[in-house]
Every structure is written in structure tokens, then in C-alpha cells.
Amino acid sequence: HVQLVESGGGSVQAGGSPRLACAASGFTYCMGWIRQAPGKEREGVATIYTHSKATAYADSVKGRFTVSQDNSKITLYLQMDSLEPDDTAMYYCAAADFRMVDGICAPATIARARDWGQGTQVTVS
Fold first, then answer.
1. Are 115 and 57 in contact (CB under 8 A)?
2. What is d(CA 55, CA 49) in angstroms, rounded to the nearest whole number?
3. What are 6-41's pLDDT values in tens digits?
4. End-to-end CA distance of the chain
5. Please, which pLDDT band fits residue 107 given cuts at 50, 70 and 90?
6. Which of 10, 77, 95, 98 has its CA 20 to 30 Å from the CA of residue 48?
7. CB distance 62 to 119 below 8 Å
8. What percent of the chain stands above pLDDT 90?
9. 3-state DSSP call for residue 20?
10. Tens of pLDDT, residues 59-75
């Protein structure tokens, strides 16, 4: 199992640009960010193949969010720009191996990850 600890959330004004961080005990084949807002479906928002660093994004955040990794710090990041009130949610970091996502690291598959962090709340007003 991979241990994941998120940080960087909080209350942000619309248009703000916070950065979330996820300190990991190790990287897996696929890492990503998932969000859950009250009354809404859970949504995978961004993923990264940790070997190639290829990324993918949900349409709702494409062009505004950027996922990246720092191998030396074993940390995953989510740079969030041009935040909107609809981005308000609990944000979770997740780690998945090849089998969990059938080899496809994407927002549509990351929720199958076995290992999740405890989450960090982002509230946009």
C-alpha cells in the first residue's frame, strides 16, 4: 500500500490559484486527483503516468488545472488556476497500479485506485 497525505487546501476566492500537494510513500504506475462535492458525483480530475509523465484531465478542469510530480520529493501536485465556485470539493490524491486501471491512466479510471489520501477541502467563494 502507498501512504498519501494531501495538503494545500483552504478557502480561496474565485479566480485564485492554489496548489495542492500529495506527499507519497512511493509512486505507482498511475497517480491522480479525484474530487467529491456534496450532492455531486465523484469526479476524477487529473492523472499522470508516473513513468512518462503523460497527463490527462477532465473536461471540467482542462486548461485550468495542471498535475505534476517531483520524483526527488515523491510528491504529486495539482496546480489549480482560475478557480470557480463549482470547483468547491474535497480533493483526494490516489495511487493505482497497472492492473487497477487496466493500463489506462485517466480521470475515468483513477477512482479504481486502492490507495487514497485523507483529502483536503477546497472552498471557492
1. no
2. 7
3. 999 999 999 999 999 999 999 999 999 999 999 999
4. 36
5. very high
6. 10
7. no
8. 100
9. strand
10. 999 999 999 999 999 99
Looking at residue 4, its amino acid is L
The three three-digit cell numbers of residue 16, written as one number = 485564485
Is 5 buried (19+), middle (13-18) or exposed (0-12) by CB count in 10 A? middle
Query: Could you please report the per-residue DSSP string of 65-87?
Result: EEEEEETTTTEEEEEE-S--GGG
112 SS3 class: helix
Please name the residues in contact with 119: beta carbons below 8 A apart, sequence gap of 6 or more. Answer: 6, 36, 90, 91, 92
Residue 106 CB-half CA count within 13 A: 7
Non-local (6+) Cβ contacts of 99 within 8 A are none
For β-strands 10-12 and 120-124, DSSP reports them as: parallel
- Quote the pLDDT of residue 89: 98
Q: What is the pLDDT of residue 117?
A: 98
Give the sign of the dihedral formed by CA 120, CA 1, CA 23, CA 98. negative
